[in-house]
Amino acid sequence: GEISCALEEQLSFALRPAFKNYYELVTVSALDREERAQHTVVVTAADAGSPPLSSSHTFSVDISDVNDNAPVFNQTSYTMYVHENNAAALLVGAVKATDADAGPNGKVSYSVVPARAAEEEPCSCVSVQSESGGVFVLRPLDYEQLRQLEVVVSAADAGSPALSSSVSVRLLVVDENDNAPLVLHPGAQDGSPPSSELVPAGAAAGDLVSKVVAVDADSGQNSWLSYQLLRATEPGLFAVGAQSGEVRLRRPPSERDAAKQKLVVLVRDNGRPPLSATAALSVLLVPGSGDAPLPRQSPAAGDDDGSLTTSLIIALVFVSLLFLLSAAAFVACKVCKRKELSGGPVLYGPSSVQSYVADGAAAGTLPHAYCYEVSLTTGSGNSEFKFLKPVLPSLPAQHCSAGEGGDHAEEFPPVPMITGDADFETPEMRSVGQLNGF
After folding, report:
1. Together in a domain, 77 and 170
2. Are 227 and 273 in contact (CB under 8 A)?
3. Inside any domain, residue 153
4. Shared domain check, 159 and 80
5. pTM summary value
6. How many separate domains does the chain show?
7. Over the stretch 111-122, which tens digit does the pLDDT of each residue have?
């Protein structure tokens, strides 16, 4: 009458005796629903008779789900592309995450979260559909302002507590040819007309006249620019470099060419479809011969020339005043020196010497500062007075009287007076009477 029970499968379950012929079916290892959601258990009961008799019963064990798995994305990161100037609410891709749990524990919903914790709100131009995971761009994007952006998409299940995971989505903006070339030269940015290029008459073929400079805000082949001559007063006179934009002479200018040449250069990008712009140039052919181009005149250059001319005039006036002041000072100095000479003691003169000698003869003495020697000769009609051998005028005949009496004075014929180093004998002066004794 004894009954024994046995399991055909002893991997995860076991029978444990409870009371008499009662047994408990227990687990002997952890069960994972995600690995095996249902187990089949066969229990066999046999007696101890001979031969023993037995019977079996099959049990089906279902494993209930627990929210122990977070959603998992099928990629570690996503890269999506969108052309600039896109339509609003444009679908550019989708993200996908799965949850191994069942029921609400495996239901995934998507959302955009801030890429960094410091950000308060996620990017407002990207949205993710919560159920399907589709990524939408909500507004048009401009490649020249925003070339790429990155958002973080989160996937969460509906378990309690909910489990979630996140992934980075990188959105690249693709450039479109939406910008025409912008001509920088020639072309006045302030609205004033551009200055003219000057070409001398002696210019040769291949000489550089000007250069067209342009830029394109697009990128890649959309920004590749090419140049070509669209119109010209003399089309055969100029050539434009297709890649450089340099305007050169195709042949030397001649007298038959118009003095003022107008050129229009077409600038085109390599987009699809291409966009273009034009640049207008004015070229003046300078008559005559010259080896080098003449400089272009501009308002700024005119202002500089005027300032230089004013400076030169001021400098010239200053130098002239300085010269006049120097000349006036020199003349004043000379006048002062002459006044000093005329106001000082006079050693001799034509009129003073005569009277001075006469007075000396009358008094019988000469000044003590000099010694004189008088020589008398007969047959001479003149008497000559010489002083230190400078030229002195001839002295007229002098009538000298000696003494205070009333006797009449003795008349002397004119005699020359010669002085020299030998005549300067003593400091004392000789009288006229002594001179007459010779």
Report:
1. yes
2. no
3. yes
4. yes
5. 0.54
6. 3
7. 998 766 555 566
